[in-house]
Amino acid sequence: MLYLETATKCMKCEENNRTVTLAPCNHYVLCDSCATTVRECPYCQTPVQSQTSTSNVFCNGFVMRFNS
Ligand SMILES: [Zn+2]
Ligand SMILES: [Zn+2]
């Protein structure tokens, strides 16, 4: 959990900033380019059903959600 809370870089490439929230687990751990290559969340291994890119929707009032 410490890694998830403190890091801002993509969990897969550790190079780009995180921009994508995965559903249904709501983990915010991937960049746009890596999110298109994964079928399950790299953090909790939940199969990905959909992805939300925050790089495009932040200006529309999108609120990040995390599982507690
Ligand atoms: Zn990445
Ligand atoms: Zn997850």
Automatic annotation (TrEMBL):
Gene3D superfamilies: Zinc/RING finger domain, C3HC4 (zinc finger). The keyword Zinc-finger applies. GO terms for molecular function: zinc ion binding. It comes from Phlebotomus papatasi (Sandfly). InterPro entries: Znf_RING, Znf_RING/FYVE/PHD. SUPFAM superfamilies: RING/U-box (SSF57850). Keywords: Metal-binding, Zinc, Zinc-finger. This is Uncharacterized protein.
